[in-house]
Amino acid sequence: MANFLIAALYKFVHLPDFESLQAPLLERCAANGVKGTLLLAEEGINGTIAGPSEGIAAILGHLRGDPRLAALVHKESWSEKMPFYRMKVKLKREIVTMGVPNVHAATMAGTYVKPGEWNRLIDDPEVVVVDVRNDYEVSIGSFNRAVNPCTTSFTEFPQWVREQSAEGGLLHGKPRVAMFCTGGIRCEKSTAYMRTQGFDDVYHLEGGILKYLETVPPEESRWSGECFVFDERVSVVHGLEPGHYEFCRACRLPLSAEDRASAHFVEGVSCPHCHDQHTPEQKQRYAERQKQVELARQRAERHIGVRVELKKAAKENP
After folding, report:
1. Of which family is this protein a member (predicted)?
2. How far apart are the C-alpha atoms of 150 and 152, rounded to whole Å?
3. Most buried residue, 85, 177, 244, 303, by most Cβ within 10 Å?
4. What is the domain extent for residue 15?
């Protein structure tokens, strides 16, 4: 039985006093058994939290009690296990980091396209469909016809746009562009950036891939593969059911069954993506950590995340 409600949320809105929101929000989450990560910045709020349904309702009610966040929209899914190990409320310069000044997603974002209308848009051969997620996310699933910018960070996206806007590039001549991402937040900022570069016909999937997978029937879907998510579920499929990927505990990249069958895969230590990127000393530490995980598993205890919670408790009770 799924016992933990997961809520993914974001909103671009002017929050000049965002720093003062941190402590009350963290306190309210702790009181309601809610864990995850929330980012606060002058441009808004972003994050994913999980907990008992009444706890999530309490946090959403707390947020929407601020008139500026009254219209906050969230997406829900369920998990049998708590997908997070602690609660973090971080103060940031941006709630999704692009590194380009004066890109105001709250007022400059492109045209929203609802999931039920998305297929018709991306089926148009005159529309350039762009996946604005990072390369490792795209690698496990994307929409048919979608272009992969092959970025390792969202900060690389503006450079890709500049390169593809040159003669011979995919964006030369400023065609109609449809963009999508996991939950919609990167799309709002990317379409706002595109508009600063003179693109008038830019669209983005409202609610992101998650809302599409939640609402569009599989038989009508243009989606192939699975959708990476930033918690212990690793990936989800249609209906937001858990997917088939696992994390590499050394590099945090998603691993398929084929990856785990590789000679380079050593649970908790290395995988085909990172086997040659860590020193022998690092691998030894990872192996010791994995040993402790396995011992905890044999005792039916949780290991990952416990160390962080013990350190926190030590600080609070010196």
Report:
1. Belongs to the TrhO family.
2. 7
3. 177
4. 4-91
How far is residue 303's CA from residue 282's CA, in Å, rounded to a whole number? 19
For residue 13, give both structure tokens.
């809105």
Average pLDDT of the segment spanning 47-74: 97
* Distance from C-alpha of 27 to C-alpha of 243, rounded to nearest angstrom: 33
Name the token pair of 296: 């905890």
Residues 185-196: tens digit of each pLDDT: 999 999 999 999
Query: How far, in Å, CA of 246 to CA of 254, rounded?
Result: 6
What's the total number of domains in the chain? Answer: 3
**Cα 202 to Cα 67, 105, 134, 169, 210, distances in angstroms:** 29, 13, 20, 17, 20
Nearby residues of 263 by Cβ (< 8 Å), 6 or more positions away: none
* Shared-domain flag, residues 80 and 112: no
Name the residues annotated as catalytic: 181
User: How many residues in total does the chain contain?
Assistant: 318
The pTM assigned to this predicted structure is: 0.86
Residue 76 belongs to some domain of the structure = yes
